[in-house]
C-alpha cells in the first residue's frame, strides 16, 4: 500500500508533528510506503497547494491527513484533493474535535477588514464568519472516507457536530513509544512534573498558585514537594505581545516564594524525555479551555504529554478540559475542575497524604502504555486504511 501523509513535520515544534513522525515510522515498519508531499512547507497554504499540483498522484492508494492545532494547510489540501479525485480514499486524524480546523484561512469581505482593527473587532468578525467555516468543515468531513479521533468523547462530539455516519468514525488512542519500565523514585519528596510545550493557555499559573496555596495551608509540605516545569519553549510560542512568557512565569514563582521548590527542564532532547518523566511520581496537566474557542464549540482533543505519561508508567493529575477525564479513567490518575486552584491544591495535599496513590496510578499507566505502543497503533491504522480502500 502506498499512502500520502499530509501533516506537519520536524523541525516544527508541535505535538501533531511529533505524532505524525512516529506514525510514519511505525507505518513503514508495517510495510506501508509513505510519501509526504507537504513536508517542510509549514502552514503556508499557497506553497502547499503548489506542492499538491506538482506531486505525482499515480499509484497513491489513499491520502491520510493530520488535522488540528489551528493549521489550515492540511484542511485545504484535503478539500482540493476531494475536488480533483472524487473516488480517492481520504482519511484524517482529527486532533481537535468537535471541529476540524475551527477557523478559515481568510475571513470573507467585508469582515476581513476587521482583522487589522483593535480588539475585540477581529474576534467579533471571526464569530460572525463562523457559520461559513462550519459549513466548509461539514462539507469536507462528510466527504471523507474515515475520520479518526484519539478518544471516544472526541468521536461522539465530532460525529454530532459534523453530521457524520457511524461507518465513517474510528477511535484509535494516541500511540506511544515502548519505554522500558523504571521504578518510582523514593516517595519523599513527592516529585511532580508539568510536561509539554510551555506557552500561555496551559494553566501553568494555576499549578503554581495551587502549590503556593498548599504550602500556605500546610507549611510542612514545603519540604516534601518538588515541581519540575519541563518541555518545549519555541520562541514563537513563548513570546508574544505581552513579552516573554517564561520570564513572567519566573516572576510569578518569585512572587509566590516557590523558587526552592521549582526546577526547570526546557527543550529536553527527545532521547532524554523518558528519563525526565520517570524521575518523577506524577505528571500534572492543569490545562484550561480557551474562552475564545468556547464561542465556536467544545474542544475534545487530548494531549501528547498524557501519552508520554502512560508510556513511561506514570499517573497524572489533570484538569477536566478536553477529553482528559476519559484518558485518566483507568485508575491511572484523577481530574479536577479546570481553573479551580483550591481543588488542585486539595489533590496535591491528598497525594502527599496517600503517596500509595502514585504507585497504583503508575501500575495502571504502565498497562495502558503497553497496549498503545506505536506498532499496535500502526497495525490498527493499516486495517483502517485497508477497509477504506475496499471500494477503491
Brief write-up:
This protein has 14 helices and 14 strands. It is α/β, with parallel strands linked by helices and 392 residues long.
- Listing every helix as H and every strand as E from the N terminus to the C terminus, the arrangement reads EHEHEHEHEHEEHEHEEHEHEHEHEHHH
Question: What can be said about the biggest beta sheet?
Answer: 6 strands, parallel
Taking pLDDT < 50 over at least 5 consecutive residues as the criterion, the unreliable ranges are: 235-240
Instruction: For the record, give the distance between the C-alpha atoms at the N and C termini, rounded to a whole number.
Output: 12 Å
Give the CATH level 1 class of the largest domain.
Answer: Alpha Beta
CATH architecture of the largest domain: 3-Layer(aba) Sandwich
Count of domain modules: 2
Radius of gyration: 22 Å
Helix fraction by DSSP (H/I, runs of at least 4): 40-55%
Record the strand order, biggest sheet.
Answer: 2-1-3-4-5-6
Counting DSSP H or I runs of 4 or more residues, the number of helices is 14
Annotated CATH homologous superfamily of the largest domain: Glycogen Phosphorylase B
Basic shape: globular
Range of strand content: 15-25%
In CATH, the topology of the largest domain is named Rossmann fold
SS content category? alpha/beta
Number of strand segments? 14
Mean pLDDT: 94
Amino acid at each position: 500500500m502506498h499512502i500520502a501523509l499530509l501533516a506537519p513535520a520536524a523541525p516544527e515544534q508541535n505535538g501533531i508533528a511529533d505524532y505524525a513522525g512516529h506514525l510514519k515510522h511505525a507505518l513503514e515498519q508495517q510495510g506501508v510506503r509513505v510519501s509526504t508531499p507537504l513536508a517542510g512547507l509549514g502552514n503556508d497554504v499557497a506553497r502547499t497547494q503548489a506542492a499538491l499540483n506538482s506531486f505525482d498522484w499515480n499509484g497513491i492508494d489513499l491520502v491520510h491527513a493530520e488535522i488540528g492545532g489551528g493549521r489550515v494547510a492540511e484542511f485545504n489540501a484535503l478539500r482540493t484533493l476531494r475536488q480533483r479525485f472524487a473516488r480517492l480514499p481520504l482519511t484524517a486524524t482529527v486532533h481537535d474535535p468537535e471541529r476540524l480546523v475551527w477557523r478559515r484561512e481568510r475571513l470573507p469581505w467585508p469582515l476581513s477588514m476587521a482583522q487589522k482593527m483593535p480588539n475585540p473587532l477581529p474576534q467579533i468578525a471571526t464569530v460572525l464568519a463562523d457559520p461559513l467555516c462550519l459549513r466548509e468543515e461539514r462539507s469536507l468531513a462528510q466527504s471523507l472516507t474515515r475520520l479518526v479521533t484519539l478518544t471516544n468523547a472526541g468521536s461522539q462530539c465530532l460525529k454530532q457536530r459534523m453530521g457524520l455516519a457511524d461507518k465513517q468514525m474510528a477511535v484509535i488512542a494516541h500511540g506511544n513509544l515502548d519505554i522500558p519500565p523504571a521504578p518510582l523514585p523514593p516517595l519523599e519528596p513527592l516529585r511532580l512534573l508539568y510536561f509539554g510545550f510551555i506557552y500561555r493557555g496551559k494553566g501553568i499559573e494555576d499549578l503554581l498558585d495551587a502549590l503556593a496555596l498548599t504550602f500556605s495551608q500546610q507549611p510542612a509540605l514545603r519540604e516534601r514537594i518538588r515541581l519540575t516545569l519541563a518541555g518545549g519553549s519555541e520562541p514563537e510560542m513563548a513570546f508574544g505581545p505581552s513579552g516573554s512568557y517564561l520570564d513572567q512565569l519566573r516572576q510569578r514563582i518569585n512572587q509566590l516564594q516557590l523558587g526552592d521548590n521549582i526546577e526547570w527542564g526546557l527543550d529536553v532532547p527527545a532521547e532524554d524525555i523518558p528519563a525526565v518523566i520517570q524521575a518523577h511520581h506524577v505528571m500534572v496537566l492543569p490545562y484550561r479551555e480557551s474562552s475564545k474557542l468556547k464561542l465556536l464549540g467544545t474542544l475534545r482533543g487530548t494531549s501528547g504529554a498524557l501519552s508520554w505519561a502512560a508510556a513511561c508508567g506514570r499517573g497524572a493529575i489533570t484538569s477536566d478540559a478536553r477529553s482528559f477525564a476519559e484518558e485518566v479513567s483507568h485508575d491511572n490518575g484523577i481530574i479536577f475542575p479546570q481553573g479551580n486552584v483550591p481543588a488542585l491544591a486539595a489533590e496535591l495535599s491528598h497525594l502527599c497524604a496517600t503517596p500509595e496513590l502514585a504507585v497504583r496510578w503508575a501500575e495502571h499507566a504502565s498497562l495502558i502504555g503497553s497496549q498503545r505502543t506505536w506498532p499496535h497503533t500502526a497495525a490498527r491504522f493499516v486495517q483502517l486504511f485497508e477497509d477504506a480502500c475496499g471500494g477503491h
